Amino acid sequence: MKMKGRSIFTYDVYAPTTVTTMLRPRRQEGQSIIKEGFNIEPPVPFSEYTDIYGNPCQRTILPVGQVIITTEVEAQVNPTKVIPNPAPPFMLVGDLPDDIMHYILPSRYCESDLHEINMLAMEIAGNLVPGYEQVEAIRSWIHSNIKYQYGVTDASTTALDVARNRIGVCRDFTHLAIALCRNLCIPTRMTVGYLDKLKEMDLHAWFEVYIGGDWYTFDAVQEKTEGYRIEIAHGRDAADVAMITQYGNATLQSLHVEVELLEPEPPQENK
């Protein structure tokens, strides 16, 4: 399926402000980038680098005044990977690859080592078969028990806050899922990008777990994990995948996001 994503960030900049951005898509298995664009208006020079997770990053200094950052991508993508039947087996920590180990550790927004998180993880999934069944139970519980609402959480909100207050947006749903899964020794990471199936279009966050030697997508915002996605970045939590990080005096005035499937979905077979 061909899929297109576009985002427009409009900033008011009050003093020259250094920013790092994470707005260009990853090139990886499952998504082939056909074309992309990255534009800053008024034009300013920028440099690019790749972070420790393989995410493409940009760096520049925004000038004083109104600045508009526009990014576009067209990609050939696969639908969200279906969990095979039987489900992939749970992997013991001793069997995990070295480069996966940091995804079972606590991180800034995902306090997976706290007693309160452990108690909730046990309540939701403690009696289930380790691995996929636990992850799906956590995803489903969050979808059913956490209220989706804008404007009630901010950049300081952690998984523990969400567990207590039971409200938030996709970032918060994802942080709680990550903390609960990691508490059960299941490697979990945060992924951000475009999703075609959203009631309110925005840049989106979901989580991926490592089971059976591969990564699988789970989305607690959706009733059922599905749809087409363009991945921009992944990391331990939002601290690693912030789409724009600023070091100065600038205010985001608006964010406009568009997602479009450029080919019709294949017809569904009658069952």
Automatic annotation (TrEMBL):
Keyword Protease set for record: yes
Transglutaminase-like domain sequence ranges: 162-222
InterPro entries: Papain-like_cys_pep_sf (IPR038765), Transglutaminase-like (IPR002931)
Keyword line: Hydrolase, Protease
Coiled coil: none
UniProt record, GO biological process: proteolysis
A Pfam family: Transglut_core
UniProt xrefs under SUPFAM superfamilies: Cysteine proteinases
Sample GO molecular function, one term: peptidase activity
Keyword Repeat belongs to the record: no
Superkingdom of source: Bacteria
Protein name: Transglutaminase-like enzyme, putative cysteine protease
Organism: Dyadobacter koreensis
